[in-house]
Amino acid sequence: MPYYRQVGEIPRKRHVQFKRPDGGLYAEELMGEEGFSSDSSLLYHRYLPTAIVKAEAVDPVVSVNTAPNLPLSPRHFRTQDLTSAGDLVAGRVLLSANGDVRLSYATTDRPSELYRNSKGDECVYIQRGSVRFESTYGVIEAGEGDYVVIPTGTIHRWVPSGTVNALVIEASGHIRPPRRYLSQYGQFLEHAPYCERDLRTPQEPLITEGEEVPVLVRTRGGLTRLTYRNHPFDVVGWDGYLYPYAFNIEDFEPVVKKTHAPPPVHQTFEGPGFVVCSFMPRPLDFHPEAVPIPYNHHNVDSDEFMFYVGGDYSARAGSGIDVGSISLHPAGFTHGPQPGAVEAVIAAGATHTSEMAVMVDTFRPLDLGEGALACEDPGYAWTWAR
């Protein structure tokens, strides 16, 4: 993360004695990336974070099988038609994946068990509902439009208030703000479409009592359930540059040009082999002869996974795309507005767009999960030829 945070009680110096009220020592835990060579935070536990009493292998509760996008085709998935059984961890329905990222959808109203993803960071976009995110760092209250970014190795759980719909982005590494938005020292620059003030982080420690507490752990080798002797939510304080945070899509400030601006101006995060973009309501292009919707384009190096989360999609009118839809436009396929959309928008004299979408562009092909195939609109590929 680009700035330092301190929460709860910590000693004046790192790695010195920090005594509990009973005279014993709090236990340090360094959470660090890239082998002590990148961002880290130092957490102070009441109990040893290393004390486990049981370990058992766990079989996946949801399908992880994928198939190539063959024959090569643009796809339309209707998440409105998906059902999922489980919580915001176990109830994820896999839509698309490659070696860099997994994209899933979840609908749930039940709390998850404690969970630690040790394969990579996660970014969870809350489409509908509200949820309490609890972790060793503290609590974040999240709701509609929030991205919640969770660093690798963070023990956490999700506690919904009613039904929650969410898109889950699981990275093979770390998810960060784009480097071009930051100074060489990590501060957001003036041209960035959001800044530190827009990020919400835990504000105080979360202390939970408990013994023999199970935690589901995902690693590159599979799933394990570790049972901790004491509840891992026992951190009295922490500081550093590594922690979970929330960012609401409404706080993204779109860039506007005289003519149509390409998707990189909407970039919100970057991960290994992919980027995340936020499309928000904005003034349309204002050149007197502008074509105020996207031109046909062929991303020769990337697959485009677009989740439509709000507003009106005039450029795709007649395609079946609606709120809750996901389109997948693979490399090798040229895509763009629906036939007649350009002329219709120019004739209407539109000055603003109301569309909202979350896009993930990947630089390796996306395979299809069983969840995507279960909610696919089979006629979508031919909508440009009607």
Spell out the blueprint of helices and strands.
Layout: E1 5-8, E2 27-32, E3 40-45, E4 52-58, E5 66-67, E6 75-78, E7 93-97, E8 101-108, E9 115-117, E10 122-135, E11 138-142, E12 146-150, E13 156-171, E14 199-200, E15 211-219, E16 222-230, E17 235-240, E18 245-248, E19 267-271, E20 274-279, E21 282-283, E22 303-310, E23 325-329, H1 341-348, E24 352-353, E25 356-362, E26 367-369, H2 370-374
Parallel strand pairs: 9-15
Antiparallel strand pairs: 1-17, 2-3, 3-17, 4-16, 5-26, 6-23, 7-8, 7-26, 8-13, 10-11, 10-12, 10-13, 12-18, 14-18, 15-16, 19-20, 20-25, 21-24, 22-23, 22-25
Account of the 3D structure:
With 386 residues, this protein is mostly beta strands. Helix content is 3%, strand content 40%. It has two helices and 26 strands. It has helices spanning 341-348, 370-374, and strands at residues 5-8, 27-32, 40-45, 52-58, 66-67, 75-78, 93-97, 101-108, 115-117, 122-135, 138-142, 146-150, 156-171, 199-200, 211-219, 222-230, 235-240, 245-248, 267-271, 274-279, 282-283, 303-310, 325-329, 352-353, 356-362, 367-369. Strand 19 (267-271) and strand 20 form a beta hairpin. The model has no long low-confidence stretch (mean pLDDT 94). Keywords: Dioxygenase, Iron, Metal-binding, Oxidoreductase. Belongs to the homogentisate dioxygenase family.
The number of distinct helices, counting runs of at least 4 residues, comes to 2
Give me the Rg, rounded.
Answer: 22 Å
- Report the structural category: mainly beta
How many β-strand stretches? 26
Average pLDDT taken over every residue: 94
Largest sheet: 10 strands, antiparallel
Low-pLDDT stretches: none
Order of helices and strands: EEEEEEEEEEEEEEEEEEEEEEEHEEEH
Cα separation of the termini: 47 Å
Helix content: under 10%
Shape: globular
Q: What percent of residues are in strands?
A: 35-45%
